[in-house]
Design brief:
By secondary structure, this protein is an alpha/beta fold. 47% of the residues lie in helices and 15% in strands. It folds into two domains: 71 residues, Orthogonal Bundle (434 Repressor (Amino-terminal Domain)), CATH 1.10.260.40; 126 residues, Trna Endonuclease, Chain: A, domain 1 (3-Layer(aba) Sandwich). The protein is built from eight helices and five strands; from the N terminus they run αααααβββαβααβ. It has a five-stranded mixed beta sheet with strand order 1-2-3-4-5, sandwiched between helices. Helix 2 crosses helix 4. The longest helix has 30 residues. The radius of gyration is 24 Å and the shape is elongated.
Length: 218
């Protein structure tokens, strides 16, 4: 199954699970407050039949707006957050950027793609891991950089939980936007990425340990 199809199925399954859980919450709260389906449906400006279907998990694609209204009527508040869970679907620009790095790495360096970070249950992965002699260098790819500090934190947490990694590459598209963001951030990234890009690429082209982490624009 293709990565896009897997992500689609995972998202669909999660949505159905959430709708079922919320339908059960609505029913429990409605009964606790002694409200009829007709009372709740009227206040939420929906039909009693629709509320009944939601409570019985028969509406797999109920909207957030509809669920939030029903929950509010029974004294509950809908809250939602998004959490990192696996890798996003990659586009052509992302793959092309990895290809440019591969062209600069020596034949003696082994590649691992979508390399897992932690143990069982940890869905995070590096975009790639390079094995250069005894060194294990992780690669994190960003085609359009927005928040350098957020990316640094993400890489730092991954490195904390992947003890085998000796260095990391933040691989960026060599665009005016990305150069501007890095320039504005100034020296704040040097503590985490002290190795100059030229030195990093030279070491990898020769198949040896680059000795640390680097920001590389290609």
């Amino acid at each position: 199954m293709a990565a896009k199809e897997r992500a689609y199925d995972i998202g669909s399954q999660r949505a159905r699970s959430i709708v079922i859980e919320l339908g059960n919450e609505i029913r429990r709260a409605r009964l606790e407050h002694g409200l009829s389906q007709a009372d709740v449906a009227r206040a939420a400006k929906t039909s009693r039949a629709q509320l009944s279907r939601i409570e019985r998990s028969k509406v797999p694609a109920a909207s957030i707006l509809e669920m939030a209204r029903l929950l509010a009527v029974v004294g509950l508040e809908l809250s939602a957050r998004a959490y990192p869970a696996g890798q996003p679907v990659r586009d052509a620009a992302h793959l092309a950027l990895i290809g440019r790095l591969r062209a600069k790495v020596g034949p003696g360096v082994a590649w691992r793609f979508e390399a897992p970070v932690g143990g069982p249950g940890d869905q995070r992965a590096w975009d790639a891991v390079l094995l250069a002699g005894p060194a294990k260098v992780a690669v994190e790819v960003e085609t359009r950089l927005r928040d350098v500090q957020a990316v640094q934190r993400r890489i730092g947490l991954k490195r904390r939980d992947d003890s085998g990694v000796s260095g990391a590459i933040l691989l960026l598209s060599n665009t005016r936007h990305n150069r501007t963001v890095l320039r504005e951030y100034g020296d704040g990234r040097r503590a985490d990425f002290p190795v100059e890009a030229v030195r990093m690429l030279r070491a990898l082209s020769e198949g040896r340990d680059p000795g640390g982490s680097s920001v590389v624009l290609l």
